Amino acid sequence: MKGGHAMKKKPNEAKIASLVRGLLVELGEDPARDGLLKTPARVAKSLAFLTQGYRQSVRSVVNGALFASGTNHMVILKDIELYSMCEHHLLPFFGKCAIGYISKGKVIGVSKLARIVDMYSRRLQIQERLTDEIAAAVMRETGAEGVGVVVRAKHLCMMMRGVGKQNSEMATSAVLGSFRTDEKVRQEFLSLI
Ligand code: ZN
What we know:
5-stranded mixed beta sheet, binds zinc ion
């Protein structure tokens, strides 16, 4: 587990660019040729964006968008697009996420659920931890009675390399509170997503 809410500093893009230039040379490329001239700077910029989740906190992305609610219905947001990078190969994995929770007096703005997904996705991840982190954050922020998260994703490290399982999709789930303890709640969630 990563160290709590410690915010990482912005990466030094000039330094990343220089490392990427070295990488290109090592791969047998000529970083001075036209097509590659600006590549190191572009990769640095792109990596800074794709890892910006390190420099955000759940508190900052939710930004107070919690609203009092008398009822405790199950709220579900599904088909949340997700793009992340596997920490083992630095290759993308992408897919969809479904989040459900049963509120206990407090609901969260739906767009904030998507922002929580983005924040944790824009870090180096494994799908299992990503799923757990999203569930824990929703539980913590909303004080919900229970939370369920399901992520389905395709991993380019599987699709492009060795094993070449082009169509395999990985599914992970995390259930907390009543979603864990109450079979009926869990079934309702799974039937709705
Ligand atoms: Zn991988």
